[in-house]
């Protein structure tokens, strides 16, 4: 696994790694409404030339009061436009503040990702 932050300076590295990637896990902040349009644009750009790359979107910070629900995230990221050739999953997640406990949503996400990794091998 390679982990990349979303800051602008790191985005140029994303494309470099993409040809080697078997599965894309894209994490968005469900409570940061203002940045979702950019998150959408970047996701679409990233996968536009790879119609079969499986994508798992983690809609994180579901525990925050202002967080968009899963259907809102689906619409905000225009996931229905991402193509029906690929496996696409959208899961709501949150992590606890001190990281002491793994939420059940994160466990579900982890299991799904493990399964997909097995399938790509
Ligand atoms: N309540 C809550 N806080 C979270 C969750 N995930 C991360 N955080 C907290 O949010 C703060 C910022 O973390 P992130 O948003 O992951 O940081 P980042 O994505 O590297 O930074 P930005 O690109 O600036 O958003 C930290 O204090 C985290 O502990 C979550 O699911 N729920």
UniProtKB/TrEMBL annotation:
GO terms for molecular function: GTP binding; GTPase activity. SUPFAM superfamilies: P-loop containing nucleoside triphosphate hydrolases (SSF52540). GTP binds at residues 6, 60-63. Keywords: GTP-binding, Nucleotide-binding. PANTHER family: ADP-RIBOSYLATION FACTOR-LIKE PROTEIN 9, ADP-RIBOSYLATION FACTOR-LIKE PROTEIN 9-RELATED. This is ADP ribosylation factor like GTPase 9. It comes from Buteo japonicus.
